[in-house]
Amino acid sequence: MSTHPLIRAIENTCRRDNIPDFRPGDSVRVHTLIKEGDKERVQVFEGVCIDRRSSSACASFTVRKISYGVGVERIFPLHTSRIERIEIVQRGRVRRARLNYLRELQGRAARIKGERSVVEQDQAGSHAAPENTVPAPDDNSPSA
Q1: Neighbours of 111 (CB within 10 A)
Q2: Other beta carbons less than 10 A from residue 6's beta carbon
Q3: How far is the C-alpha of 88 from the C-alpha of 49, rounded, in Å?
Q4: Tens digit of pLDDT for each residue in 34-60?
Q5: What pTM, to 2 d.p., does this model score?
């Protein structure tokens, strides 16, 4: 069923273009604007993306985390102006589009296999040798 061109044009004005390519299974950090009284601040919600819904202007995604032993899920509209940015912390390797089975799992069983992202590796440090180490001798140097 195709939508009317006018509706499609209005939806395209609301779409965000700075959304990273993340999928269910990825660990994400969502920076959200929260209004408290007359002030606004940024609140960070970090967890595993367990669901992505629709690709239209009303698209949303669900993020799940464990806070003090209690599972917390939050559904974010994808194209809202209240989301400041979305960071991908870790890519997860899963075989499903909806990870609802994680709700019944606890501890190590709820882990998702994946690789560390490039951003995380840069924060951990580069692979250069530490400054206080002695370099290995060359093969051409004379031995005593």
Answers
A1: 11
A2: 8
A3: 10
A4: 999 999 999 999 999 999 888 777 889
A5: 0.70
